[in-house]
Amino acid sequence: MEKIIRIGTRDSQLAMWQATLVRDLLTANGHTVELVPIKSEGDIDLVTPLYEIGVQGIFTKSLDLALLNDRIDVAVHSFKDVPTQLPQGLLNAAVLERGPVKDLLVYKQDTAFLDDPAYTAHIGTSSIRRKAQWLRRYPHHQLHNLRGNVIKRLEKLAAENWDAAIFAAAGLERINVRPANSVILDWMLPAPAQGAIVAACRENDAFIREALAPLHHAETALCTGVEREFLRTLLGGCTTPISAYAYIRDGQLHFEGNLCSLNGDASFTVTRQSAAGNTAGMGKDAAEEVLAQGGREVIEVIRNVQH
Fold first, then answer.
1. Distance (Å, rounded) from C-alpha 298 to C-alpha 224?
2. What does the pLDDT read at residue 39?
3. Which domains are assigned to the chain?
4. Are 58 and 126 in contact (CB under 8 A)?
5. pLDDT in tens, 188-236
6. Residue 84: closest CA among 262, 283, 285
7. Is 186 a known active-site residue?
8. pTM tops 0.85
9. What residues have CB less than 8 Å from 164, skipping those under 6 apart?
10. 8, 18, 230, 291: which could form a disulfide with 283 (CB 3.0–4.6 Å)?
């Protein structure tokens, strides 16, 4: 009897888009696939700010449990949501080719408020990383908690008396809902692995590992691997304002990483460059430089605030 590959996914429009992409790629390779929607903790509680929930893998835990309990064979995630330490028995089997990486600003009227130091703009975002970077650049602005899937956040922005909100470009563009009144934030450093999709499975499932292998994009895996090593060394997650981005150009891997204090008044940035075939330890080395610059004290303050 032919095996049906069960793909677990969150049930938001974006998550379903990502899972459908993996399904279509597997189907094109001759596999029979079905999607299994699963609610995550992060989708159920849309009120509490993520940093207050403080749970590593809040958007991935339900799918991890379904994998471990053999309810599904593959879990598809936005790679930036995946903790750097996976549950025992699971592995990231395929990192797909990366999509748009940057954040973007969706604004109500225009962006004139960005150039007016006397105006207190109201900006929506649930990301502690985006808040910290925004406040470093615009310390006089007011930030507001914005939770929910992409569609709900766009609706919330429309309903509130805010000037703008910050989104990941990939999230809006993949499901074709990026408004015309939006602009890429070139200066904002993204979350580690932002724009990448990963398919996870059980370590001992040789059939699924083999099925997912053709979907793996080595360059994306290399770049996100350096970014996640930076994150892991700083012991960061959704509750720490850590940013990182690596890309390859002309055979060289370029890396930039950053740690901010919660209000953006302290910021530590590091850059690295190396041949793409010689990047072992790059993320760890960059993170240790941040810690030595004063990042360790900033992380300690953040932990004390959140506990």
1. 24
2. 77
3. 4-98+196-216 (3.40.190.10), 103-184 (3.40.190.10), 233-306 (3.30.160.40)
4. no
5. 999 999 999 999 999 999 999 999 999 999 999 999 999 999 999 998 6
6. 283
7. no
8. yes
9. 105, 106, 107, 108, 111, 113, 121, 123, 124, 157
10. 230
